[in-house]
Amino acid sequence: MLRLALPTDPRWAHAAQMDISEILTDHAWCEQKAASAAISLMVQYPEFPELVSQMAALAREEMEHFQRVHQCILDRGLSLGRERKDPYVHALISFQIKQGSKEHRLRDKLLMAALIEARSCERFRLLSEEIADPSLAGFYRELMASEAGHYTLFISLARDLTGREATDVRWRAWLNYEAGQIQKFQSGKGMHA
Ligand SMILES: [Fe+2]
Ligand SMILES: [Fe+2]
């Protein structure tokens, strides 16, 4: 199911948890971007009622994650830093097809979202195993399960759109591309880069 082409170097979580303030700020903005991306899909594709319903629910859930990460920041006497650019997500966007049918373009957006959820899920697991603070470790374990659910949601929306077989062929191309990108950003201490 959730099988990325290249697992994260386990040293990433060790490096990331050395600076909790930085990882929490980066993470908070990842949640905000996930909510914004869900809203954009609703706005761009109002003719797909299932997509609109699911994205409306997802945007709420991702904003709730943002709120909870923000609370973690405040509880630790830290403050939310400015929004971070995410070069990893930027690199993924460049792999999306620009031509083709509306369904195929939407499918690429859904598969990209599925990949980001899958990678986030993997990294939350690593953080949950590495972080000494038990309440933060538990929070990351909970988020790991939630992102796994989002990954499944995006894959099934994509399959509903263009069929299982054709979707899975494109998914494998995305997996390979993502592996090359994550490798480039492997030394970064943020959620993705
Ligand atoms: Fe989330
Ligand atoms: Fe998510």
Describe this structure in words.
It is a single chain. With 193 residues, the chain is an all-alpha fold. It has a single domain (17-184), classed as Up-down Bundle (Ferritin), CATH 1.20.1260.10. The chain contains 7 helices and no strands. It has helices at 11-17, 20-44, 49-75, 87-93, 102-130, 134-162, 164-184. α2 runs antiparallel to α3 (49-75) and α5 (102-130) packs across α7 (164-184). It is globular. The chain starts with 10 loop residues before the first helix and ends in a 9-residue tail after the last helix. The mean pLDDT is 95. Bound molecules: fe (ii) ion (FE2) (2 copies). Residues 34, 62, 117, 147, 150 line the site of one fe (ii) ion (FE2).
The termini sit apart by: 24 Å
- Profile the largest sheet: none
**What name goes with the CATH superfamily?**
Ferritin, core subunit, four-helix bundle
Number of distinct beta strands? 0
Supply the helix-strand structural class: mainly alpha
The helix count comes to: 7
- Quickly give the CATH architecture: Up-down Bundle
